[in-house]
Amino acid sequence: MQLRPPRPNQISALEDSELADAQPRAPSASARRGSARGEPLRNSNVAGLLLLTMISWTVYQFLGEGFLSSFNLFTLSQLVAQTAVIGFAQLVVLVIGRLNLAVGAVGVSVVMFTGWLAGPLMVNPVLAVVAGLLLGALLGMAMGWLELRTGLNSFVVTLAVQSIYVGAVLVISGGASVSALPDSVTKVGGAPLFTPGLSVLALPALVIAALLWYLYHRSSLGWKMLAVGANSRAAELGGVAVPRVVIMSFALSGLLSGVAGVMEMTRVSAALPSLGTDWLLSAFIVPILGGTMLTGGAVSVGGALVAALFLESINSGLVSLNVAAYWQQLAQALILLVAVIADQTGRSRRLRAKNEVTVRAEATRTGHNDHVQK
User: Fold this and answer.
1) Fewest CB within a 10 Å sphere: which of 226, 339, 350, 364?
2) How far is residue 222's CA from residue 83's CA, in Å, rounded to a whole number?
3) Using an 8 Å Cβ cutoff, are 60 and 317 in contact?
4) How far is it, in rounded angstroms, from Cα 35 to Cα 230?
5) Average pLDDT of the chain to the nearest whole number
6) What are phi and psi of 193, to 5 degrees?
7) More confident residue, 166 or 15
8) For the chain, where are the alpha helices, taking DSSP H only?
């Protein structure tokens, strides 16, 4: 289900010079709930993605062997959970109209730091993971602060920071992995959840999805994030502390990148310095294909979750058909291209519809004024 900032007419009105001094208040919780419930189903990509996923499963099961086996479904659930969290890490900055090209770089930084603590330093695994996630939040916060401080585009800032983080990890680690991890860490990724065909990694992904849904549909902070993405200047005029929202969004992105990294570490039973190098396409495909706008101001958490399922189903099916890895990368690139085109087309359609409503309203008002004058 896709959510946009409530009362967009109030925000856009602030752009007019005659209302520049207006100070609109954030809508109440009940208003936000009404807006969320009233969002039409046609604006959500969930139903279409679910249908495509079911079709792909049917085709792969017919053409390949063992696609719906417990082993393959377990592996698929591992990958879907991790890919969903990677997408969420990008989603939270797309909402405010920013980009984060350093999702993988933050993820590998957290993993190597956590691996060193839990492995060679023999720190309690839980404390090691908590410390690693705090590092991820700080690394994300640093990117948000740097963007605000320099005034540069988030694309440039995160691209530069991505190289800095990865370079620092390689210099400190010497390119060596950490494989001497406690059993309590390595066994988590291979544990089932209720059934042999479902990984326990699905649990944190679902919990994060629920928390993000609550953030954007039920909290004032989520409304402020959406407002900043829809129109940063209008949100600032409306009393939103835009710099704080930006830094908090990047911190949340860093935290989620760390979660995705820890999930992969438990899955492969090692802290690898090469982790995160293949996250970039997935990080953009999942939120955009799910319905989150590339330019900010609209979000679909459920759509991102289903998009992760669809994307990894395609990859898993290609593997079951013994398709070469470069074809899988090509398929991901094509999916991203289709998602971006669909996003652009949808925005153009909404803009035309908005302009038509404005023109009709203006024509009606003009006709009414002429009638009164007569």
Assistant:
1) 364
2) 23
3) yes
4) 16
5) 82
6) -120, 100
7) 166
8) 8-13, 29-37, 46-63, 70-94, 103-118, 125-150, 154-173, 183-186, 202-218, 220-230, 232-237, 242-268, 280-290, 301-320, 325-373
